[in-house]
Amino acid sequence: MNGIRAFGATPSDLALDPFDEGTSSYSKAKDTSPIARLQERIDRGETKLSHDAQFGYLLSLMEELGVSTHSQLLVFSKTSLQRERITPKTPRALYFNDDVYLGFIPGAPFIEVSGMDSKLGGVFYSIDQGKTGRPRFVRTDQCLECHTSTKTLGVPGPLVRSFITDADGVVDMASGTSLVNHRTPLSERWGGWYVTGTHGAQTHRGNLSGREAFALHEKEPNHLGNQMDLRRFFDVSRYPAATSDIVALMTLEHQAHMQNFLTRLNQDSTSALRQFGHLNMKK
Ligand code: HEC
Predict the structure, then answer these.
(1) Which of 65, 73, 116, 269 has its CA 20 to 30 A from that of 98?
(2) If you measure from the C-alpha of residue 1 to the centroid of ligand 1, how many angstroms do you get, rounded to a whole number?
(3) What angle do CA 190, 191, 197 make, to 5 degrees?
(4) CB–CB of 94/248 below 8 Å?
(5) What is the extent of the structural domain holding 175?
């Protein structure tokens, strides 16, 4: 089926595009995202990333890419390539702006990076945290195992999920909402995430890990809700900020879905034009 399939479709309606053989030749195509542009500036000697003993290249990357520490989100479900490092005591921190996403785990071998390209969608890289003379972004299409699926509308891009986890952050795959966007009720969001900020009587699944916490949540729905301080859960000094802000979370969820939607529309309309465009030109 051709045409603009993403329009009005739910993820389960969407067949995966063979994106690597089709319109975009993804893995060979040139990335024009801010990550590729930063690498070019580094290669030309116009800028240099500086290394920090505690945060590796993270702070320097954020400065170069214009990403604020206020965007910090903390996720403790084991839902990443570096999953063995992620626990409720050592959550993964995510940072983002309009077209860049960073994933940082204290002490992990590399920082996960993705940049948005107007044609390709998300383009994924890792960069070593250890100090080297010439830090480089390494393009890693292995990330697409998770970052291209029906949950990203079939295109490479950002992903947000919500799962019930045990006390170590291991997800219960049968639980909760596996895809979160701006339409997901708050009560189904943030399983596996820390959440700071107040939300009145509304409930969510953030800050809960393990059977006991979820049992208490059943009895008292806002158990561990309305948290301003995460110190009771883990050592916040290992992160550049102490928050996993509720507004930043909602912004991410809206933005991630919208970006995948736009990538999908662009790819579908490009392929439709390629196939049927000549009909219009004859008129
Ligand atoms: C096993 C599945 C999986 C793999 C493989 C994976 N990721 Fe992710 N990634 C996720 C999930 C799920 C999220 C959403 C946050 C969460 O639940 O941990 C995410 C979130 C991210 C984010 C934050 C923006 C967003 O999409 O929400 C970045 C950046 C990221 N991943 C980069 C990478 C990079 C770079 C690689 C490859 C080196 C990679 N990921 C491989 C599952 C994966």
Answers:
(1) 269
(2) 30
(3) 40
(4) no
(5) 19-268
Beta-strand relationship, 100-104 and 138-139: unpaired
Q: Is residue 121 part of a domain?
A: yes
The answer as to whether 58 is a domain residue is yes
Measure CA 60 to chain center: 20
| CA distance linking residue 229 with residue 196, whole number of Å | 7
Statement: residue 248 has pLDDT above 90: yes
Q: How far apart are CA 58 and CA 51, in angstroms?
A: 8
- Ligand 1 atom at minimum distance from 145 CA: 5
Confirm if 71 and 253 have CB atoms less than 8 A apart: no
In a domain, residue 5? The reply is no
Distance CA 87, CA 89 (A): 5
Helix ranges (H only) for the chain are: 34-43, 58-65, 144-147, 211-219, 246-282
pLDDT digits (tens, 9 = 90+) for 28-44: 899 999 999 999 999 99
Tally of structural domains, the chain: 1
In a domain, 222, yes or no: yes
How far away, in angstroms, is 238 Cα from ligand 1 center?
Answer: 20
Supply the pTM of this predicted model. Answer: 0.91
The 10s digit of each residue's pLDDT in 76-109 is: 999 888 888 999 999 999 999 999 999 999 999 9
Q: Do the strands 138-139 and 73-75 form a parallel or antiparallel pair, or are they unpaired?
A: unpaired
